[in-house]
Specification:
This protein is mostly helical. The protein has nine helices and no strands. The radius of gyration is 20 Å and the shape is globular.
Length: about 170
């Protein structure tokens, strides 16, 4: 008797789901270690190790988390230059959360030279990718004429409505 390909695919997928963390990649495993769960406490040194290894191999999502761990001093001494390096790496690879975090560093001058124009460019790029916090920041910048944006109340209002809708639909991040 021949087993149909669909049955094999379903059984393979089910076994992967049952394997759980064993099948998770380093970023997924790192997130589990970063946040912990009811069954397993957070393990920040392990999360740092996983993100560091994956980031050094070119994973932009791992680079984002690694940058945030450096920024916040999680399992490592706070190092804003290292944070900026890894966030820049991830931002250059189309990671909207990294773009927004990097923009905030440029606005504050932490780990990088303060640069409102660079901050604005990263906020706009993240907003173009519909990252809710960036859309909100852009709306505020347009409303106030801050962060390198020229004051434009009509566009600010449109952006604010879009940001509010996007924030309601967003899933929690780091």
């Amino acid at each position: 008797m021949k087993i149909p390909h669909l049955v094999i695919a379903v059984l393979t997928a089910a076994s992967c789901v049952l394997a759980g963390v064993a099948m998770a990649g380093p970023v997924e495993e790192g997130r589990l270690n970063l946040r912990g769960s009811e069954a397993t406490p957070a393990n920040l040194p392990r999360a740092f190790e996983l993100f560091s290894g994956a980031a050094k191999k070119g994973d932009p999502q791992a680079a984002y988390y690694l940058g945030m761990m450096y920024k916040n001093g999680m399992a490592v001494a706070r190092d804003l230059k290292a944070a900026a390096h890894w966030l820049q790496f991830a931002a250059n690879r189309q990671t909207p959360a990294a773009m927004y975090a990097l923009a905030k560093l440029y606005l504050s001058g932490e780990g990088v030279k303060r640069d409102e124009l660079a901050a604005r460019r990263w906020i706009e790029k993240a907003a173009d990718l519909e990252y809710p916090e960036a859309v909100m920041a852009m709306a505020i910048g347009l409303r106030d004429g801050s962060m390198g944006f020229e004051r434009n109340e009509a566009l600010a209002e449109t952006q604010m409505r879009f940001a509010n809708r996007a924030l309601k639909q967003a899933t929690p991040g780091m």
